[in-house]
Amino acid sequence: MSEEINKAEETKEVSAEARWYVVHTYSGYENKVKANIEKTVENRGMQDQIFEVSVPLQDVVETMKDGQKKTVQRKVFPGYVLLNMIMNDETWYVVRNTRGVTSFVGPGSKPVPLTDAEVRAMGIGGQVENLDVEIGESVRVATGPFADSVGQIKEINIHKKTLVVSLSIFGRETPVELDFAQIDKL
To answer: Which domain range does residue 168 map to?
Structure first.
């Protein structure tokens, strides 16, 4: 009997693990869905169950009519929103009943979490454990428009996987928000 109870407890622990899920939305509603879910999470105090809502973006260089090149951000997966959450009846209900959400990705009504390989391939999640920097520490920007700049960490946001680094731009200290993946420890 005690073995059955232990197995049930192990199952609960495994199911209580945060995983990445994909939600299908109406086209063009991705940012609105993200904002609505984040607002609901805040209002219901569900920060311990739904950790991150993400609409992955990528920089794309477009050539304008006058021949100038312009960098714009495009959605990597139009019509989809990624969620890092613990799947249970309450979180399923909140996400599924958000205006603009059509369904979770998965067979029937059963959401299927992304595999670890899929998460790594998308470049989301999994980097929190590797970050061993503290506020006040100096770091080098590895990628982006501020590449090779050195600055001091002012804030760290573990859940959003971002940090604010004070960089010297045109002789003035300027706070810049960067992803964990964009910095190298000195």
So the answer is: 138-185
